[in-house]
């Protein structure tokens, strides 16, 4: 019996998709993914500043990410090209498309096909529900490139709705004090607002100027955030304010300081934080989310971009798959986690 060979000679993805100084480079497509230095052609997964940098000549991404990047980085000389979800584009010798990653508004996984192999670069992602962005859609692939921000078994994120319930319980218990919630301006803030609305808080939410531009872009893309007001208009008592904890206005008196981050799962981090009330809310996959996703996409090979690689590589190996660290640098520094 004659076995038919593959259509293409087997070209292992590590020969055509590999780290360079600028970032992860796709040679047959002639582009970098989330490069950390300015390049001619970049494909951008999402608008967090460690993934979306200024100065590229051409950027291919989602319309939401292009809008967020323009707002954060200025218009500059960059030319943006945007793709609908699932719209396939030929770039050089590869086919490429974007699929939701569920991390923040516009966050995309990048699927690349070349020489009969499919690689999916997931950027940052999460599996918890979040109505402020399109949910993660798994794509079957030969190589899955994953982050590992919370790649340790201790990280199991609780239900975010329960965490927001703790905030509203505190608001009800301490009606004379304002609550200032420190959280990252892109993604965490808008998710938190959605969670507050879904939990029944339809009163005003006061925003530091640093976060209001991002909220406006969410609203422009159809994510309703309700009654948002300026920080300067906050009453001295009983307000819910979203602002960096480093810039709490004196006019708020003695507010309850709240912080929302996946890192607060670690007792030491929670104690180091200035917060009276730590909320464990993360926009990244936790340990179970990482392993569940890796199982779901079925890739025999996993590449890990940033985070705690060692434990994840070990666990993936136990489950009969090959995993390796890509050792990309420059990520995870300003991400909100
Ligand atoms: Zn990241
Ligand atoms: Zn991110």
Describe the structure in your own words:
The mean pLDDT is 92. It is built from seven helices and 19 strands. The protein has two domains: 13-154 and 284-325, Ribonuclease Z/Hydroxyacylglutathione hydrolase-like (Metallo-beta-lactamase, Chain A, 4-Layer Sandwich), CATH 3.60.15.10; 160-279, Rossmann fold (3-Layer(aba) Sandwich), CATH 3.40.50.12650. The protein has 337 residues and is an alpha/beta fold. A hairpin with a 2-residue loop joins strand 1 and strand 2. One zinc ion binds next to loops.
Calculate the terminal CA-CA distance, rounded to whole Å.
54 Å
- Widest beta sheet: strand line-up: 7-8-9-10-11-18-19
Shape: globular
Give the C-alpha Rg: 21 Å
Oligomeric nature of the chains: single chain
Outline the low-pLDDT stretches. none
Counting H and I runs of at least 4 residues, what is the number of helices? Answer: 7
The residue fraction in helices comes out at 10-25%
| Coarse structural class | alpha/beta
Highest-level CATH class of the largest domain: Alpha Beta
Average per-residue pLDDT, rounded, comes to 92
Ligand types: zinc ion
Assign the CATH superfamily of the largest domain.
Ribonuclease Z/Hydroxyacylglutathione hydrolase-like
How many domains?
A: 2
Largest sheet: 7 strands, mixed
Helix and strand pattern: EEEEEHEEEEEEHEHEHEEEHEHEHE
Number of strands: 19
- Give the CATH architecture of the largest domain: 4-Layer Sandwich
CATH topology-level name of the largest domain: Metallo-beta-lactamase, Chain A
Sheet-strand content, in percent, reads 15-25%
